[in-house]
Amino acid sequence: MVPSTNPTSTVIFKSLIAVKAGNAIIFSPHPAAAKCTTEAARIMQEAAERAGAPKGLILCITQPTLAATNELMKHKLTDVILATGGPGLVRAAYSSGKPAYGVGPGNVPVYIHESANIEKAVELIIESKTFDYGTICASEQALLVDESIKEKVVAEMTKQGAYFLNEEEKRKVESIILVNGGLNAKIVGKSPQVIGEMAGIEVPSEAKVIVAEETGVGKEYPFSIEKLSPTLAFYTVKDMQAASELAQKLLDAGGLGHTVGIHAEDEKVIEAYTIDKPAGRIIVNAGTTFGAIGATVNVKPSLTLGCGAIGNNVTSDNVTVNHLFNIKRVAFGVRQMPKKEESAQNEPALTK
């Protein structure tokens, strides 16, 4: 199952891990990305054939429908499902009666502690958040900034291309983030300037990301949700404890088990902040987009990021080729079970 937010890279990645593990793979594209998903699958199949693979190793549904996806998931020859998409799709995969690796949404909170290298932290965050216009589920969604360094962080972000909205502009952008209680698909993967135009405001041409100061969490505060666009919520916190509590609220609102980030130089702060976070990936002093997928930190490279039981997923791992093997174990006897008489002799005597 392929999402509309990163369809081509998902096809490439899932093709590679499937074939490496000796599997054929069939893709079911999101209707909004059907053409590029189909074309990516075609390119991968042609490359595989040039390397000696059989025809039909990598296929794609050409006319995606809900009925086609359901038939594919429940087909007798389907062995396992890799479901990347919204919560409804993941639930359907888990309900199909087949083994499934589903992944959950990310609503990634990133704490900037007063010990952080502010210039470097901001550089990494903006690089991460603007990649593919923020469509990666591991991209930063909210910055939690110590009040002692707020002015420095705001100044550095502005210097590096962030555009901070005033209150009127914020209300206008908020009005287009949610539609019927869900994320407005029309802002996903769009530039700051296009989003500004949709909201009826002018965003400078040099702006790389839109930022709004926020205080609340929940759907009544649209900047606090996963936005899949170059838009960030900016929270000011008193200290690490306040940041920790706020991060938990943001995860509860739609990102449990996924990813958390922190920028700090104080190792005691890093340990204290990260130890209790309900996330499969804790990214330290790196952009969460590239960190979570294993590009800039030492976790397994993957574009399928599990959220574990707390995120209603079967695994909290970065899903890789290892998850697509059936492992057969040939085990030789190395010890014998004790005989009944020996067991009785070795039992401790009962005492009064």
From TrEMBL:
Transmembrane residue ranges: none
GO terms of molecular function: oxidoreductase activity, acting on the aldehyde or oxo group of donors, NAD or NADP as acceptor
Gene3D superfamilies listed in its UniProt record: Aldehyde Dehydrogenase, Chain A, domain 1 (3.40.605.10), Aldehyde Dehydrogenase, Chain A, domain 2 (3.40.309.10)
Keywords assigned by UniProt, alphabetized: Oxidoreductase
Residues spanning the signal sequence: none
Keyword Oxidoreductase attributed: yes
Short name of any one Pfam family annotated for the protein: Aldedh
Domain Aldehyde dehydrogenase: 7-160
Designated name of the protein: Acetaldehyde dehydrogenase
